[in-house]
Amino acid sequence: MLAVESVSVSLAGRRVLDGLSLEVTAGEVVAVFGPSGSGKSTLLRVVAGLVDVDSGRVLVDGVDVTAVPTHRRSVGMVFQDEQLFPHRDVAGNVSFGLEMAGVERGEREARVAEVLAAVGLDGFGGRDVSTLSGGEAKRVALARSLAPRPTVLLADEPLTGLDADLHDRLAVDVRSVLRASGTTTLWVTHDRAEAELVADRSVSLLDLGSRA
Amino acid sequence: MVALVVVPAVNLVISTLDAGALSGALGDERVWEVVWFSLWQAVVSTAVTVVIGVWPAMVVARHRFRGRAVFIGGLTAVFVLPTVVLAAGVQVVLPGEWARGASAVIVAHVVFNLAVVVRTVAVAPVPVGLEDAARTLGASRMQVALRVTLPLVAPALWSAAAVVFLFSFTSFGVVRVLGDLSSSTIEVEVWRRAIRLGDVSGAAVLSVLQVVVLAAVLVVTSRMQRSRGLRGRSMLSPVPGAWSLAPVVAVAALASTPLVALVWGSFRSDGGFSLAGWRAFGSDEIRPGLRLGLDPLAALSASLMSAVVATVLAVVLGGLAVAVISVTGRSGAWLDAGLALPLGVSAVTVGLGLLITFDSGVFDWRASWWMVPLGHAVVAVPFVVRPAVAAVRSVPGDLRAAAATLGASPVRAWWVTVGAALRRPLAAGAGLAAAVSLGEFGATSLLSRSGSETLPVVIERMLARTGGSFRAQGHALAVVLAAATMLIVVLIDRWRDDRVGH
């Protein structure tokens, strides 16, 4: 589970988050929605350890990780613009986190195939990431984050930029993938309808203590 | 233009086809010694430059900080310094036994070329988002650097390395000042054969050999330079802490030391502080009544004269070439590539080609005063043409059409669109051509006749003499030359920035 306790953050002299608190219980998918510039991405980056807090705490499974560096937090993140590694193929991207965790090769390959199948990209392993369509790239990004079995998954507007039809189909798919894997997920979006479609529970960032 | 670049090149190749010269040169042990030195010192210079330069380059590529522009501009100013001047500075810094030989040459090449690495990497996009992604996937700082950043920045590093290798491999002025008998590049050997030994065909074989080795190296490295699909420029973030500027400070100190040392050296003679170097500034006497055979003031005016003539020539020739390239299509591309030739082919080779071409019965202009500025102009033409061609290409075709629909005649339409885009790059190119001419040493060494030496030639001779006061005088002259070239480059830079501001 994930707990954010009265976190305040300033970026470039502007207070972005002001005493924000939030809890996500184990296996729950919580969506936070809010207008752009309201600090949604900052919230996720705080949980990931990519942004330092001025005050407050972040707890993962009851352990205070506020001072723990990103790579030891067991927190996966799906980025808005995917951030797939251009120098690795699809399988290379998905196996990156497993390599960092020191998983053995055979086990790694099996896990890569398993997650790729889960997101509906069976047999895509050898593809160059620059040849993927928008929807496929989003699926690969999700698979890559899920592969090392993170304790908490963070999703930063992961479906933004798709056309409406594809967006809705992918939202349903992602929901079932997250359900099946039982991953504790914090999902942020500007789209309230998307939040309600994907999540078990959705909250407005403005109610949580944002300054925007 | 064809007469100045293509004909000399062809003549150069023809004169190597003489079987006797070919086997004579290739059978000479000295030749292979020189080839070997050129290669290994260039590889070492390149490796050291990249390894040192990559640290400040990454800081400059990621962060904004006070003095960032000054740092880049300063390195560039060092890069455009006349080779003889920088070599003189390095000589002052290095202690006795190190001041001459392979290590001195390598140190000078590194200081020179740090700007290449920093500038190339600084404009390449840094994968900040991908680094964050890797961290959320459990990669430590070290793993991020080795598995994500390095592979993605590698193409920029390789292209910087190729340029540094090219400059180090064909190094001339630095090696003339800092090299010794066992540390001589092909470029210096070409000059030695052509001028000292009068063996022009042997020199031609060597310069063709140099071009072949260069081409091979560049073909191999061009495969490494293919970018991996990173586009755009990364946003600059504030510096995380003062300590992270350490590589910038260290490299700034390294790059500025030779210049500071040069000024210091100009005030020293006979082991103490002295104004002798500056007092003797224009003097050509060893002691009253005994002449040196080198006249610094005449050299200064010869340099200025060459710079003016070479600049006019380079701009006229370059301007014509740009006009032709902009009007013609595919054939223009060939001209474009052909004019870049002097960049890769090295100045001594340019000088040798002109020497061979204009020494024949038909065009016996070898002794003409304008041979030196002509050589400078050929070396400087790429600096005029490249930015100008880029500017012309950036003019949308519809702009001219728009001017025409508004009633402009074809000539007028060209003038208000392409002509307007050309003015600034051509003027900046003129400034660069003047700076190149002032410091040019390679082509000059082959083309200048005694009595019309330019400043770099005189400086090199003075430094080669023993005796403290000559050294100090040479350093004083070098300081003046350095100041002149840096002033030109700083002015060009300021002026370009002005434009961005408007």
Description:
Helices cover 36% and strands 25% of the residues of chain A. With 212 residues, chain A is of the alpha/beta class. In chain A, the strands form 2 sheets. In chain A, strands 6-7-8-3-9 form a 5-stranded parallel beta sheet, sandwiched between helices. In chain A, strands 2-1-4-5 form a 4-stranded antiparallel beta sheet, covered by helices on one side. In chain A, a hairpin with a 2-residue loop joins strand 1 and strand 2. Chain A is globular and about 45 Å long. Chain B has 502 residues and is mostly helical. Chain B has 2 domains: 28-237, MetI-like (MetI-like fold), CATH 1.10.3720; 267-271 and 278-502, Orthogonal Bundle (MetI-like fold). Chain B contains 22 helices and 6 strands. Chain B has a two-stranded parallel ribbon with strand order 1-2. Chain B has a two-stranded antiparallel sheet with strand order 3-4. In chain B, strands 5-6 form a two-stranded antiparallel ribbon. In chain B, strand 3 and strand 4 (272-273) form a beta hairpin. In chain B, helix 12 packs across helix 22. The longest helix of chain B has 34 residues, at 29-62. The two termini of chain B are 36 Å apart.
Rg calculated over all Cα atoms of chain B = 24 Å
Average pLDDT of chain B, rounded to a whole number, is 82
**What is the top-level CATH class of the largest domain in chain B?**
Mainly Alpha
Overall pLDDT of chain A: 90
Numbering strands along the chain, what is their spatial order in the largest sheet of chain B? 1-2
**Range of strand content of chain A:** 25-35%
SS-derived structural category of chain B: mainly alpha
Order of helices and strands of chain A: EEEHEEEHHHEHEHEH
Return Rg of chain A in Å.
17 Å
The amount of helix of chain B comes to over 70%
CATH homologous superfamily annotation of the largest domain in chain A: P-loop containing nucleotide triphosphate hydrolases
DSSP helical segment count of chain A: 7
Approximately how much beta-strand content do the residues of chain B carry?
under 5%
Domain tally of chain A = 2
Largest sheet of chain B: 2 strands, parallel
> Which series of helices and strands of chain B comes N to C?
HHHEHHHHHHHHEHEEHEEHHHHHHHHH
How is the CATH topology of the largest domain in chain B named?
Answer: MetI-like fold
Helix percent of chain A reads: 25-40%
